[in-house]
Design brief:
The protein is an alpha+beta fold. The chain is about 35% helix and about 25% strand. It has 13 helices and 16 strands. It has an 8-stranded mixed beta sheet, sandwiched between helices. The longest helix is centred in the last third of the chain and has 20 residues. The relative contact order is 0.17.
Length: about 375
């Protein structure tokens, strides 16, 4: 988690240098997690080599639509956000909290994992929007007096290699949220992929002392002004080709003024309340606990697992669910993400990755819902 701001130092590495980077991370004891093609999607999992990166693959994103496509080049990071985010490694979908076993004198409790050795993750290919999402989860899970001990252990040992986006997806709107497509902080190393004139290189920028140490051992040359200018062109091109836009100015107040807007009824007619949007969102953090007792009543275990504000049980209190309708559950999600999150955590809960649009089975578009409510006020 040592990604403190330093004076940027740009170096140039090639695809062989990318393999050397992977090897250096493994030698340091990291488990390298990165994107790779699996089951007709680009997913995040532990890599056995840099060759498993999705060279030459891109994706087509649209509301309720995701398809792999072949690119006309060999870009390793020429794709947009997939169905998974890095949250699943730092804040896993299921985690055992404790277990208890019956003894002659009562119960023996185990499961306090404060002293367990956490996995040392190196995340290779973190998009700027996901960097911001990790920072938001840091604020939620580490920022107050009550911290998530498991998250802290995993986060403290993580090494983050960001990749500035060279391709905007059809559902991306990171520029609107100020979260991309260029990594500005929170990383140990930032890469910009440069493919031109038969060459395939990466501009590598140092983001921390740990990042500088890793890069120092790689074969590279210092980047020239032309190399840095080429990287700026890549980022500018991506900014200009966003698939979506959202006017985020005053959106908190806009939504809070319109809690009874007719648009919520329109959404309710389409929304399946499946919770896909919350499951793929890189900042959602809601969980519940599940207790399982052995058939002989001699042991029990408590597990924490992801939950969603779209489930009926999530807002259940004595007498029933507070949010019994699909309308109230969708309204809760979008107003929390874009409005009351500011009150709780000092920022928006949305990073503009577009996953909620892509993976909604009926294609509900959060940017379109905000636009419709805003336009109704203006007319």
């Amino acid at each position: 988690m040592d990604a403190t701001t330093t004076t940027p130092t740009s170096r140039l590495i090639d695809t062989r240098g990318l393999e050397d980077l992977y090897d250096a991370l493994v030698e340091e004891g990291y488990r390298v997690i990165g994107p790779t093609v699996q089951d007709d999607a680009i997913v995040l999992r532990e890599l056995s080599s840099a060759q498993e990166l999705p060279f030459g693959w891109g994706v087509r994103l649209q509301p309720a639509g995701y398809r792999l496509r072949r690119r006309d080049d060999t870009a390793a990071f020429g794709h947009s956000a997939g169905p998974q985010s890095w949250k699943r490694f730092l804040h896993p979908p299921r985690e055992r909290l404790w277990s208890a076993t019956r003894t002659a004198d009562g119960f023996e409790l185990s499961g306090d994992r404060a002293d367990d050795e956490p996995p040392r993750y190196a995340f290779l290919g973190v998009r700027p929007c996901d960097l911001r999402a990790i920072a938001i989860q840091d604020r939620v899970l580490l920022g107050d007096a009550f911290t998530d001990a498991g998250y802290r252990r995993r986060r403290d040992s993580a090494f983050l290699i960001a990749v500035n986006c060279g391709t905007a997806g059809g559902t991306c709107f990171c520029v609107s949220m100020g979260t991309g497509p260029e990594a500005s902080s929170g990383h140990d190393v930032a890469l910009t992929e440069l493919i031109a004139d038969g060459t395939h290189r990466f501009l590598a920028e140092v983001g921390s002392a740990a990042g500088a140490e890793i890069l120092a051992g790689l074969g590279h040359r210092r980047a020239s002004a032309e190399d840095e200018a080429a990287a700026e062109v890549v980022i500018a091109r991506t900014k200009a080709s966003m698939g979506r836009q959202m006017d985020a100015e005053g959106v908190k107040q806009l939504l809070q003024r319109n809690l009874e807007h007719g648009r919520w009824d329109d959404v309710a007619e389409r929304c399946l309340t499946c919770g896909n949007c919350t499951m793929v969102c890189p900042t959602c953090f809601c969980t519940t606990v599940e207790d399982v007792t052995g058939l002989d009543a001699g042991s029990t275990e408590r597990t924490r697992k992801w939950d969603s504000c779209f489930t009926m049980d999530f807002s259940y209190i004595h007498g029933g669910s507070v949010r019994a309708s699909g309308k109230s559950r969708y309204r809760q999600w979008i107003t929390h993400k874009l409005a009351s999150w500011h009150d709780q955590f000092g920022s928006s809960g949305c990073v503009g990755c577009g996953r909620c649009i892509t993976w909604c089975p009926v294609g509900i578009d959060i940017t379109e819902e905000v636009r419709a409510i805003r336009e109704s006020e203006e007319h």
